[in-house]
UniProtKB/TrEMBL annotation:
This is 3'-5' exonuclease domain-containing protein. Residues 33-247 form the 3'-5' exonuclease domain. It comes from Cerrena zonata. SUPFAM superfamilies: Ribonuclease H-like. GO terms for molecular function: 3'-5' exonuclease activity; nucleic acid binding. Pfam families: DNA_pol_A_exo1. One of its GO terms (biological process) is nucleobase-containing compound metabolic process. Residues 320-346 are annotated as: Disordered.
Length: 376
């Protein structure tokens, strides 16, 4: 997880607590790992990975999922991160090699859960590099948001919004419907801290600072500094720890697979990501992820900004009264003009979904705001 804007807005990582969050623990746990640089080493790794009931997956690279993004490392762990393999993809790029074919077969096997934290960028880079779409993703970032949605009251969620994104209490309370069901995406480090999963479990602050300074190009250096390889291994270790904790808490619910699928699809390409990022929407969970918009009654509508197909509730909408125009064919014959049919109640909605509207409020970019009539 190298270029994740949301990391900066992690749970408990705003304002005063930011300093605390950035303070390096005395000693962070360094997860043991195997560095994979050859096809033979990969073949050994795949043998071990294929025996695991699930895989923990994360990527590192330059500007992940950005237009110029490049993959550097692919880290894969077995259950509970008992084995961790950090794969140097610059040396493992031949898709025809038997060991790579076997690895990709694990990726595309839907029956093997892939435990990830915000898998959107990883999905894009893996597809670009190896030409396969990862299947069976269980995204723990979504599991955390879904848990919040189940357990929190609306005022608690509004308070988080006001506190972390500085929208101001008044704005959030005044526009309750606009902010309804919109969630801030949590960061992995913040989740580890807020659930007190281990003081020694944290990201290396030097590498975090490197990302914040826009120096993710260092992931492409070879030989790669040991510190970066260790960071990649630790990230997967953290994800594995969170997964074990979530399992114990029964926060991995049966809907998570479908929710994760919708989440990945919300930013399936670099262009999708860029568009959402342009208005700062990447910090917010896209609408239509926690529940399936197509399962609800009614037609779906496209957001003019993020291009997602969403239910009407995802947009600001209202009914209004308008005069019914006369029937076109008869109008000229009878010479009638104007309102011959009385009034009709119609539906209208804003062109952009509420996440795009809320994001644009904090952005320099202007989005389309004119009401449009909903054709039913
Ligand atoms: Zn939108």
């Amino acid at each position: 997880m190298s270029e994740r804007g949301v990391e900066k807005h992690a749970v408990g990582a705003s304002g005063k607590s930011q300093e605390k969050a950035d303070a390096q623990p005395k000693e962070i746990f360094n997860a043991p790992y195997t560095f994979v640089e050859t096809y033979n080493q990969l073949a050994d790794a795949v043998l071990i990975l294929s025996r695991s009931p699930y895989l923990v997956v994360d990527c590192e690279g330059y500007d992940i999922a950005q237009p110029d993004g490049k993959l550097s490392l692919l880290t894969i762990g077995t259950a509970e991160a008992r084995d961790l393999f950090v794969i140097d993809v610059l040396n493992i790029k031949d898709k025809e090699e038997a060991s790579v074919v076997d690895l990709l077969a694990l990726f595309t096997n839907e029956a093997i859960p892939k435990i990830m934290w915000d898998g959107r960028g990883d999905f894009v880079e893996i597809f670009d590099w190896y030409g396969v779409e990862m299947q069976g993703i269980l995204d723990l970032q979504i599991a955390e948001v879904a848990k919040q949605a189940r357990h929190e009251t609306e005022p608690t969620r509004q308070a988080r919004f006001a506190r972390q994104l500085q929208y101001g209490w008044k704005a959030v309370r005044k526009h309750k419907e606009l902010f309804s069901g919109i969630h801030i995406l949590p960061g992995l480090d913040g989740v580890v801290r807020s659930y007190k999963l281990g003081e020694h479990l944290a990201k290396d602050t030097e590498v975090v600072a490197m990302h914040r300074a826009g120096e993710s190009g260092r992931w492409m250096e070879r030989p790669l500094p040991e510190r970066l390889i260790q960071y990649a291994a630790n990230d997967v270790y953290l994800i594995a720890v969170v997964y074990t904790f979530f399992l114990e808490k029964k926060w991995i619910q049966k809907e998570l697979k479908a929710q994760s699928y919708r989440y990945i699809n919300a930013e399936k390409t670099r262009e999708d990501k860029q568009r959402r990022q342009q208005i700062g929407a990447s910090r917010l969970l896209p609408l239509g992820v926690l529940s399936d918009p197509s399962a609800l009654y009614g037609t779906l509508h496209v957001c003019a900004w993020c291009k997602r197909l969403l239910d009407l509730g995802s947009f600001q909408h209202s009914s209004y009264t308008q005069p019914t125009p006369g029937e076109k064919g008869k109008k000229s014959k009878k010479g009638q003009k104007g309102n011959v049919g009385g009034n009709t109640r119609s539906l209208r909605r804003k062109p952009c979904c509420r996440v795009c509207v809320v994001s644009a409020m904090k952005s320099e970019v202007t989005i389309d705001k004119e009401w449009i009539i909903v054709v039913t």
